[in-house]
Write a structure and sequence with these properties.
about 100 residues, alpha+beta, Alpha-Beta Plaits, 4-stranded antiparallel β-sheet, 2 helices, 4 strands, about 25% helix, binds copper (II) ion
């Protein structure tokens, strides 16, 4: 199943200086997450599925393989979103 899960890639895109998302209560906020390690459509599908199961997520609006980024709507806790992605075997942090 996890043929595509390779974590040694060089497509690491993080922007630690860009902090657009706070940790406080947000209603239907848009949250963007940078994801490391996605290499194909199976990966984006796994991420999308994992994110949609996190409490508070009302919609997974985008999971982009090209930009290595996911975008969700809702008031989910960012830590939980990241944990869900990491459980799938990918790296994640707030965009
Ligand atoms: Cu894949």
């Amino acid at each position: 199943m996890w043929h595509c899960r390779n974590r040694g890639g060089s497509a690491i895109m993080t922007y630690p200086s860009h902090r657009g998302v706070g940790q406080n209560q947000r209603r239907n906020a848009m949250i963007r997450i940078k994801i490391e390690g996605m290499t194909c459509g199976h990966c984006t599908g796994a991420v999308e599925k994992a994110l949609s199961k996190v409490p508070g997520v009302t919609a997974v609006t985008r999971v982009s393989l090209e930009s290595g980024e996911a975008q969700i709507e809702g008031d989910a806790a960012p830590e939980q979103l990241i944990a869900a992605i990491e459980e799938e075997g990918f790296g994640a942090r707030l965009a």
